[in-house]
Amino acid sequence: MIAKLTGLLDDFGADWAVIDVGGVGYLVFCSARTLSHLGLRGDRCTVFTQQQVSETDIRLIGFASAAERDWFRLLTAIQGVGSKVALAILSALTTEELQRACAGGDSAMVARANGVGPKLATRIVNELKDRAGALPTAPGAAAVASAPAGTPGNDAVSALQNLGFKPQVAADAVARAIDELGEDAGLNDLIRVALKRAAG
């Protein structure tokens, strides 16, 4: 089974990318969040993969992190959640948000994803509630992700993304800035230090 691909981003669309590995192009289906991590055509990238085999199809699903792949596996084990719905959930929520939603029983957050109604969202949260704490999230942004919207940490991440940094790079840089400056740091100081960390 193919577990990971590292190569050049050859092409991409709304829910797929072609990764050129040594002259062989692999078609990989991805969440919108993963696609945003891959960069521009010609950029070197790595995706963690899950191979799916059905009676009519064999496809690779790609993820920006191993944590995202772990959540995909958990989600698709739930009745009524196929790969499309799982990718829609992972497009709408970060792994940290999904973990918090499941641990806290917040089915409304899960229902934000396209194609996920209230009943399915409740089933997902109920089935994953006990397992949410044991699953890893993507590295770096735990402190930032757990902060409420509108806080300096989240605003600093948004500011870095607006400057062109990828979401995970921005979150990692702000998390390091918070470690350095303390949780009471102001927005301008966070952005200044995070920019240095992201550029370095």
UniProtKB/TrEMBL annotation:
Known role: The RuvA-RuvB-RuvC complex processes Holliday junction (HJ) DNA during genetic recombination and DNA repair, while the RuvA-RuvB complex plays an important role in the rescue of blocked DNA replication forks via replication fork reversal (RFR). RuvA specifically binds to HJ cruciform DNA, conferring on it an open structure. The RuvB hexamer acts as an ATP-dependent pump, pulling dsDNA into and through the RuvAB complex. HJ branch migration allows RuvC to scan DNA until it finds its consensus sequence, where it cleaves and resolves the cruciform DNA.
CDD domains in alphabetical order: UBA_RuvA_C
Positions of the Helix-hairpin-helix DNA-binding motif class domain: 73-92, 108-127
Gene Ontology biological-process annotations: DNA recombination; DNA repair
Subcellular compartments: Cytoplasm
Domain of life assignment: Bacteria
Coiled-coil annotated residue ranges, if any: none
Annotated region described as Domain III, given as residue ranges: 152-200
Protein name (Swiss-Prot/TrEMBL): Holliday junction branch migration complex subunit RuvA
Subunit-level organization: Homotetramer. Forms an RuvA(8)-RuvB(12)-Holliday junction (HJ) complex. HJ DNA is sandwiched between 2 RuvA tetramers; dsDNA enters through RuvA and exits via RuvB. An RuvB hexamer assembles on each DNA strand where it exits the tetramer. Each RuvB hexamer is contacted by two RuvA subunits (via domain III) on 2 adjacent RuvB subunits; this complex drives branch migration. In the full resolvosome a probable DNA-RuvA(4)-RuvB(12)-RuvC(2) complex forms which resolves the HJ.
Lineage, top ranks: Bacteria, Pseudomonadati, Pseudomonadota, Alphaproteobacteria, Sphingomonadales
GO molecular function terms attached to this record: ATP binding; four-way junction DNA binding; four-way junction helicase activity
Keywords attached to this entry: Cytoplasm, DNA damage, DNA recombination, DNA repair, DNA-binding
Gene this protein is translated from: ruvA
